[in-house]
Amino acid sequence: MRTAVVARYADRIAVMYGGRIIESGSARTIFERPAHPYTEGLMASVPRLDSTAKSHLFAIEGNPPDLAALPPGCAFAPRCGRRIAACQTTRPVLASIESDHHAACLLHAA
What we know:
The protein is of the alpha+beta class.
């Protein structure tokens, strides 16, 4: 399993979407407490060894953005089930969620 390899050998992880880092932190923090909806979707899409043979894989709806024509707000907003109105117009900046854990998501904006 790729996530097990990453968790075993990486101290820190940076998750990218649309050519930008949207979450960063220790490997443990990212795997245990993902803060960005895209990171959550990535974690949910990984096949589990303990799942049944008939279980379906989770897929993030929609398509990745055209990097040459990114939307004005959050690049993940068109695919995000938790988006708010501001996500369509405001590009989130990487901000501290907790010590050594950062995410670029308006859901965490103060």
